[in-house]
Amino acid sequence: MSSETKFNAWAAYASKEPLKPFQYVPRPLGPSDIEIKISHCGICGSDLHTIESDWGTPNFPVVVGHEIVGTVVKAGPSVSNLAVGDIVGVGAQVYACRGEDCRECSHDLDPHCPKGVFTYNAKYADGENAYGGYSESVRVDSHYAFKIPAEISNAEAAPLMCAGATVFTPMLEHKMKAGDRVGVVGIGGLGHLAIQFANGLGCKVTAISHSLNKKEECTKLGASEFIYTGDATQAETAKKSLDYLIITSNSKSNDYGLYGSLVDYNGKIILLAAPSTNLELSPFFFISNQVYIGGSLIGGIKQIKATLEFAAKHNIRPLIEKVPMANVNEGLDKVREGKVRYRVVLEN
């Protein structure tokens, strides 16, 4: 345990209860670790799923938050990629072995590293808990902290660390390019960024939503087409009009038969959201229409660096609403009630 240093944070002590102040002693600063004074942290849907036990009971008390931005205030003696004073961001992962003999890490799949540690609700090999960004400070492996381009503000950088990297990673993996027809389902925290990244690649982007009032905003973000799912005629007209369909909505009411009909032969459906219930799919549909379905987790080191560089170059920015960290429960309620366009960012 590290002497008398204590970090003040906001933790969930039980499922579906308001977050309360929490104080913890951080892990000792290792040779490759840095300490970050947090300025901002985005609220991700995963935070809500975790504190509400949608994906199983977390290790209470749990401090969530994996869209972290702040200033490096301490650095271990082996840190060479960062320096005290640097503005950095941290996403959904804080450690992987990065070994050349690691099948996952050696193929830029470090989010799947068997020794990997997620930013919160996880444990390090020494048994210490990993605590997230709803806090004043955090300590992480320096390889999982990324310099924020000067063009991007701290508050705007926060959602890029998870939401941005999550939507851009499958675009990189599937080598999406200019002219590809890309649909985005769910125009929220992930979806509004997916539109911008796909547009930045030169793709023809179709936004798909049950909210007709989002059409104008989607156009401004870069979508050339908009499908309102409440109008069956629009979906019928758009059949087989997409090469890729990125699903960012975790709604239990998602109609995967409808979504699949929008994808052309040999097209791909990519899941980025995880509903709390299992999907009901028709194998015959996918076989007869020669449509593929898969998923993508989060971005690793290579992908997060690419995300930040691409966002800076193409002026991709999340639309955010800042809320004081002390009002974290107000921010969480805004997300629960769907009142945010499109990301709440907590601010110290």
TrEMBL record:
The molecular function GO annotations come to: oxidoreductase activity, acting on the CH-OH group of donors, NAD or NADP as acceptor; zinc ion binding
Which SUPFAM superfamilies does this entry report, sorted A to Z? Answer: GroES-like, NAD(P)-binding Rossmann-fold domains
Cite the Enoyl reductase (ER) domain residue spans from the record: 14-346
Q: Which Pfam families match?
A: ADH_N, ADH_zinc_N
- Which key words tag this protein in UniProt? Metal-binding, Oxidoreductase, Zinc
Question: Is Zinc among this UniProt entry's keywords?
Answer: yes
Q: Does the keyword ATP-binding apply?
A: no
- What are the required cofactors? Zn(2+)
* Family (UniProt): Belongs to the zinc-containing alcohol dehydrogenase family.
Q: What is this protein called?
A: Enoyl reductase (ER) domain-containing protein
